[in-house]
Amino acid sequence: MPRQIAIEDPPGPPEAPPADPAPRRDPGPITLKTLRRMAERGEPFACLTAADATTARWLARAGVHLLLMPDSAAETVLGFDRTIFMPLDLSIVLTAAVKRGAPDVVVMGDMPFLSYQTSDEEAIRNAGRYLTEGHADIVKMEMDASFAPMVAKMARAGIPVCAHVGLKPQHVLKAGGYVAAGRTAEDARRVVADAVALEQAGAVMLLVEAVPDEVTARILEETSVPLIGIGAGTACHGQILVVQDLLGMTDHPPRFAEAVAQLGPAIQEAGAKWVQRVGSRNIGGSRYTMSAGESERLARENGR
Ligand code: KIV
Q: Which of 71, 113, 138 has most ligand 1 atoms within 8 Å of CB, for mutation?
């Protein structure tokens, strides 16, 4: 997978295991209000990406609170080498698939490159499509403070917005790669200022990607909406990973993504077993049968 954060220095020490890793679940559907309450109570909520109804169904059964239909599906599902290739219409269709698979969790649509940057009017229409056609509960956009007026217009229209700050994968061409954000005092101030401005404009959630813990701490101090982190330390209210990274299906995962399963090798092994079975005409399962009478009749009709 191309989504690898540039490593400018050796990885820090591994995280200490949490005292109680099991997230608690309120009964009933999870809503943005549920997540807000969890954040207020200091209970971490778990988020993952999903791009199909089946995966969404299993992740919801696992207790995941929020599913993002990500623009990184351009890489993981469509095989491109960058997220900017995610088509808007397909993203909306897949967001709806995720919601059908997991109707009781919060589903977030991820607005692709150039679906919100060209004009506020186009952005609002496209964001609205995620709610009406994609059945999303909230839309996410990669933004800096200059998008605050657009977020305010979306808030006025009743569109819940999650502002993605820090490393912005839609900007990798400009940035020269997947480079962590906020590693100098000046850049850290900029990331925090983006988060503050976008919350003030009306964003109801923030997501920060690939920043040092100090930046996360400042964002938490200066904002009040739930903050989801990816490669941003343990202090965030929610944590998200790309599901293929978590499941061990990514060839070169980013440094912050630790796999908890090895589905890649498991899929390879299952595929190899199938190849072997087909080769030896041992395809398993149970066969369809004909009654003896029908079988004889067919044989007679065929002149045997
Ligand atoms: O598209 C993506 O994978 C994301 C991450 C933050 C999960 O936006």
A: 71
Q: Which domain holds residue 230?
A: 32-261
Q: Is residue 8 included in any domain, yes or no?
A: no
User: Which residues, 6+ apart, have CB-to-CB distance to 138 below 8 Å?
Assistant: 32, 106, 107, 108, 109, 160, 161, 162, 204, 205
**Separation of 29 CA from ligand 1 center, angstroms?**
23
User: Does the Cβ of 230 fall within 6 Å of ligand 1?
Assistant: yes
The mean-pLDDT minimum among 19-28, 136-145, 263-272 falls in: 19-28
How remote is the CA of residue 240 from the centroid of ligand 1, in Å? 8
Co-location of 133 and 273 in the same domain: no
- Co-location of 271 and 154 in the same domain: no
- Cα–Cα nearest to 178, from 141, 142, 220: 142
Closest ligand 1 atom to Cα of 140:
8
At 10-21, the pLDDT tens digits run 555 555 555 554
User: 27 lies in a domain?
Assistant: no
Does 36 reside within a domain? Answer: yes
